[in-house]
Amino acid sequence: MLRRLLFVLPLLIFAAATAFFVWGLDPDRDPGEIPSVLIDEPVPDFDLPPIDGSEPGSSAATGLSSADLSGQGITLVNVFASWCMPCRAEHPILTELRRNQDIRLVGINYKDEPDEALAWLDELGNPYDAIGADMEGDAGLEWGISGVPETFFVDNEGVIRYRHVGPIHETEIDDLILPILEELR
Q1: Domain range holding 95?
Q2: 8: in domain
Q3: pLDDT of 55-106, one tens digit each?
Q4: I need a surface site. Which of 1, 36, 163, 170 has the fewest CB within 10 A?
């Protein structure tokens, strides 16, 4: 019996490895796609303070909570950090998108030093309607982020309809982002 098991075990391991290899070569599989259990679910419950040291009256001084994401029209929730280079590359695209579309853009500043976050916003401009500081990363866990940047599209009822992992690229605006926004309208 043991001899038979020793003979079959390598064959089973080989078969499993072959199955994973074939699955990885599937041309319809998108390796960048990370599924989210939050799609078509209400935004998670969170309540973030403003970025410490932000000027009163600025969007960085507002904070952000789950209550802010319902009844406000289409809202993009962008998780960003000053230490994130892809966030820097994405920032002008989000700024332009905010300027040209009838959307609300809010930010979750993820595990960032307040002084560095404020300097980053001062340097690049602040397109956000509201920003909450997620110093410990707890809200990021609730949202299920895998890293920064990530952007969630939330409808008027406060339901997450789309998750974009990584920076939004200019090449994605016409073919991906605008059709999603149109569908949400």
Answers
A1: 36-184
A2: no
A3: 888 877 889 999 999 999 999 999 999 999 999 999 999 999 999 998 999 9
A4: 1
The number of domains in the chain is: 1
> For residue 21, what are the CA distances in angstroms to 25, 131, 165?
6, 43, 24
CB atoms within 10 A of CB 9: 10
Structure tokens at 181: 């926004």
In a domain, 110, yes or no: yes
> The domain that contains 124 carries what CATH number?
3.40.30.10
Greatest Cα pair distance, the chain, in angstroms, is: 76
Length of the chain: 185
Which contiguous run of DSSP H or E holds residue 121?
A: helix 114-124
Cα distance between residue 79 and residue 61, in whole Å: 17
